[in-house]
Amino acid sequence: MAATLLDGNKIANEIRAEVAAEVRTLSAAGVRPGLAVILVGNNPASEIYVRGKVKSSDRRTARTCAGTKPPRGD
E strand or H helix at 50, and its extent? Predict the structure, then answer.
């Protein structure tokens, strides 16, 4: 079986374009989609990941809400 080479950047751009079109359609109908994130603890990798998602959502005019919560000390 031959391997199939995928162009991840191309696929990601196609998905982003689809999401942006859906956001525009919803916004025109008076619905503003959003992204809500709650980070628990202090994981730098998670913080970077969430920061990227918030930035990406902002570019598509979707509202975002990100918050942090310290880990429980059980």
Answer: helix 44-59
At 66, is the secondary structure helix, strand, or coil?
A: strand
Give yes or no for a contact between 39 and 66, defined as CB atoms under 8 angstroms apart.
yes
Per-residue pLDDT, 43: 87
pTM: 0.61
pLDDT score for 5: 93
DSSP string, 2-48: ------HHHHHHHHHHHHHHHHHHHHHTT---EEEEEEES--HHHHH
- Which three-class secondary structure state does DSSP give residue 70? coil
CATH number for 8-69: choose from 2.30.30.100, 1.10.357.10, 3.40.50.10860, 3.40.50.170: 3.40.50.10860
